[in-house]
Specification:
Helices cover about 30% and strands about 30% of the residues. It is of the alpha/beta class and about 180 residues long. The chain folds into two domains: about 1-50; about 55-170, OB fold (Dihydrolipoamide Acetyltransferase, E2P) (Beta Barrel).
Length: about 180
Amino acid sequence: MFVYNIKINGSKTFKYFFIGIVLLVVVIVGIVSFKVFHGANNAKENSSCLPQNQVSKLSATNYTNILKTVHENIDSYVGTQINFTGYVYRVLDLNENQFILARNMIVSSDFQSVVVGFLCEYDTAKEFENDTWVELTGKIVKGEYHGDMPIVKVTNLKRVDKPNDEFVYPPDESYIPTAGIL
């Protein structure tokens, strides 16, 4: 049986250990910084390279995440074309050509809901009554309604049946948008 007796010099060992930890932290911070800044540059390049005719489809699962993101970063999404389904909803101070393409967002466990949606403009909007379910395609522009507001300029609007997944849920806090890309 061999017994190894290693004498460790505490001050040298601590110095080497401390230097190793510092170098490891510097390398990790460098890699993370590179990925963050390189990813941000790629997002800018990708958003400027998107074809103008590409349409982003919104669904019941991503609806509120995208709604929140677009409202918080209007300038990043101006010109983006979107397609989604909802019902026509109007409030008293909207113009004749305006409506909200709405969904009911569940806010509590007993299915209490609030109306959420995009403000839309369409020349013949008055032809569609309140609570009519429609599918629209349109382009996001920056407009004014009690402050800066994304407005969807509708290019195509058609009546549809009420979907099975008519409710949406609050935005997922872990959702991380990429600028200009839905």
